[in-house]
Amino acid sequence: MQMSDPTPTSAEIGQEATESIGLPYRIAVLCYLRDAQGRLLMLHRSKAPNQGRYSPIGGKLEVGEGEGPHECAQREIQEEAGLDIATEDIEFIGMVSEKGYEDAGHWLLFCFDVTRVISHDELPTYEFEEGILEWVEPDDIESLNIPETDRQVLWPLVRERKPGGIFTVHIDCSTDPMTWTIHASGS
Q1: Least C-beta-crowded within 10 Å: which of 11, 57, 98, 172?
Q2: What does the pLDDT look like over 153-176, one tens digit per residue?
Q3: Is 157 in contact with 180 (CB distance < 8 Å)?
Q4: Helices (H) and strands (E) in the chain — how many of each?
Q5: Model pTM?
Q6: Residue 82, by phi and psi: left (phi above 0), alpha (psi -120 to 50) or beta?
Q7: Among 52, 59, 33, 41, which Cα is nearest to 145's?
């Protein structure tokens, strides 16, 4: 009698991995820049994700390059606002995980504050392929067309964060209504 080998074949392992993957996970940064009046620099997006909505400057990490979150924040600020911001002027303020965002994927977002004031004349342009940059009063953010996750969860955490505070939150967008758990509020 011949015994079968219980070790799974590479095809079986590949099948199990494919079945367990589900939605893709994306890693990105969001960067909050302020002017001397305390207004935030927001991008009115002309491209997906969040086309037609407002969001802070940000974008996906270049994972294949091994890019870190701070490096990504510097790169995205340079690409979207044309600003070279020193690493010491970029402060980590929080982390957001989103499950099933728009049924298209999961997100892990690293949030940063630029700690120095940005002068309007530092920006070489306000319009580029991703959309149009606009300075927005903090009190007006919630009235903008922003993602519901930002309106209900992220923006209140950013707005209420105390200096030096860090927030972490998990948002489950796969449920209706969405639910969230704040693990640290930053206040």
Answers
A1: 11
A2: 999 999 999 999 999 999 999 999
A3: no
A4: 4, 9
A5: 0.86
A6: left
A7: 52
Write out the two tokens for 136.
């927005």
Give the span between the Cα atoms of 97 and 107, in whole angstroms: 6
Average pLDDT of span 67-74 = 98
Q: In sequence order, what are the residues at sequence separation of 6 or more whose Cβ sits closer than 8 angstroms to the Cβ of residue 152? A: 178, 180
**What residue spans define the domains of the chain?**
23-185
> Which of 33-72 are b and which e, b meaning 16 or more Cβ less than 10 Å from the residue's Cβ?
bbeeeebbbbbbbeeebbeebbbbbbbebeeeeebebebb
Pick the CATH number of 23-185 from 3.20.20.60, 3.90.79.10, 3.90.960.10, 3.30.1360.120: 3.90.79.10
Q: Which of 126, 142, 124, 116 is nearest to 53 (CA)?
A: 142
**Computed from CA positions of residues 24, 173, 41, 91, in that sequence, does the dihedral angle turn out positive or negative?**
negative
Average pLDDT (98-107) is 93
Give the Cβ contact number of residue 109 at 10 Å: 21
Residues near 147 by Cβ (< 8 Å), separated by ≥ 6? Answer: 50, 53, 55
Token pair 């011949």 is at which residue? Answer: 2
